[in-house]
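Below is how a single chain appears once it has passed through the pipeline. First comes the sequence as given, then the structure the pipeline wrote out for it. We keep one example in the README because the format questions we get most often are answered faster by looking than by reading.
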Amino acid sequence: MASHTDTVRIGEGQQARLRHGILRLINRVRVEIIDALDRELSVFDISAPQLFVLSSVAHGEAESAAGLCKTISYDPGAMTRMIDRLQQKGLVRRVPRPEDRRAMNLELTVAGKALFPQLVAVKDRVQAQFLRGFSEEDAKLLESLLYRMLGNR
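Resulting structure:
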């Protein structure tokens, strides 16, 4: 019997079937979640990708456009345009880095900090909708399995 730290080898045919089904399902869930977020966030004139950017900036996961591109896998040109839109909305600002004035850090504005908790509440409602019927243990297991998948790349 394998312990929880042992890796169980799945046969290639079975692995191929699992990989296709799991990846397809993960993508479908991703698309559905983004669509639901877009619908719910529309009252704030914010899109799901904009929420991801605001969240990354708010949590210090990325300070620059380049860092955001890595964090949320976005094209640099598209990221620049998205940051421009968020800046026009008064939610983020670009701040020159003290050590290199050509490089810019991103931070939430006062308005961005005020709006962010409302956006998080929307995200939490959408997440709860997708986790309806899951126990707390189920949700924790799903989260740990997804982190485990990320660790395998």
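The chain has one domain: 14-151.

See the next section for the split statistics.
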